[in-house]
Amino acid sequence: MTAQSNILLLYLARALRGFGDGFAAVILPAYLALIGFDAALIGVVAATALFGTALSTLLIGFVAPRYDLRNLLIAGAAMMVATGLAFPQFELPALVLLVAFLGTINPSTGDLGILIPLEHAMLAHGAADQHRTNTFARYSFIGALAMAAGALASGLPDVMATYGIDNRMAFRTMFYAYAALGLLSAFVYLRLPHAHVERRAPTAPLGPSRRVVYKLSALFCLDAFAGGFAVQSMMALWLFERFDLSLSAAGLFFFWSSVLSAFSFPMAAWIAKRIGLVNTMVYTHIPSSLCLIVAAFSPNLVVALALLLIRSALSQMDVPTRSSYVMAVVTPPERPAAASVTAAPRTLASSLSPALAGALLGSSFMALPFVLCGTLKIVYDVALLFSFRHIKPPEEA
To answer: How far is CA 200 from CA 98, 135, 195, 203, in A?
Structure first.
């Protein structure tokens, strides 16, 4: 198969996984509330899921150079199947937390999980420097559209209820659908060729680019810690409790939110060609953070949703540009480890804040987590611009 065919297969797998992540992030807090979890405990579940994802992502990045990438992708899809089958079987908090820690359900809208560094390495391997950012933009675009469709599908439990289906059974059905999407992803990965990052295992996963990768990782941790205060599950919970939004209405909102994010990805690639990858990350991120802060003080639902939609159109432009930048400033053998080292600590950092957000949602000012999120993200943007404005990828040098 050609490199382009392999990229198309990775796009398809991203779409399948994105659809599952899209509805899982919305139904997760609703399902946990149904079985008796309060806001603080829901936040702990989200934090535990992100913490487990961080550890598995870090591990996969360091072992990937020594193993067949295709087999690792299939193993990751198998974990997705197991998660969907296991989650609805337990209601005891300790067991739910265990499944959240070991599983793949993503309480956020971002690209998280063990499959991400593997797919990033394969995408970068198959794309020339001048096409790399566009390749990642299409990858993110497809994933976001799929997540939008998934968010819209999160209203299906309400539809099932109109036909007399018990709420618990409706949620179980959604989790089983998540498992089925993992199975379909595994079949897609089977079509990929066997692939190794290099013919010999490297003496160290990171070599000459170690310092740059660690510095990027530290900054990305700050961004992710901030983002953890406003993960989609926590945002959904705030809308449910602050404005009494229904599950179907929330699904519709997150659908349009994901659609706007999706169309921002090709726009990000277009902007990056003109002002550079780092500038694109920073100058689109700051306005989105300001929108989130203002939304926290919104007097009614319409104003809040409008500001959050504007934020969605801007906040994810750094996703393809960030992925492209990391792959550009390291050597090819370092790519899986670089993707992992910059992604796993992000996930680990983001796992700390949802538990805090859940506790703060119970305070007199429920939207305080979103003010913290926006403020910390602006600090991150300024630090990123100051630290990396002079380190150019090959196509900008």
So the answer is: 36, 27, 12, 9
CATH number at residue 269: 1.20.1250.20
Q: How deeply is 299 buried, as exposed, middle or buried, from its count of CB atoms within 10 A (0-12, 13-18, 19+)?
A: exposed
* Domain coverage including residue 154: 3-396
- Residue-wise pLDDT for 324-338, tens only, equals 899 888 887 777 778
What region, left, alpha or beta, does residue 155 occupy, with left being phi > 0 and alpha being psi -120 to 50 degrees? alpha
- Tell me the residue type at 101: F
| Global confidence as pTM | 0.73
Whether 242 and 366 have beta carbons less than 8 Å apart is answered as yes
Q: Please state, in angstroms and rounded to a whole number, the distance separating the CA atoms of residues 199 and 65.
A: 9
Query: Tens digits of per-residue pLDDT, 226-275?
Result: 988 887 778 888 888 888 888 888 888 888 887 888 889 889 989 998 99
The pair of three-digit structure tokens given for residue 150, joined into one six-digit string: 């998934």
When divided into structural domains, the chain yields a total of: 1
Distance of CA 3 to the CA centre of its chain: 25
CA angle 160, 172, 116 (to 5 degrees): 115
Closest to 109 (Cα-Cα) out of 289, 265, 267, 258: 258
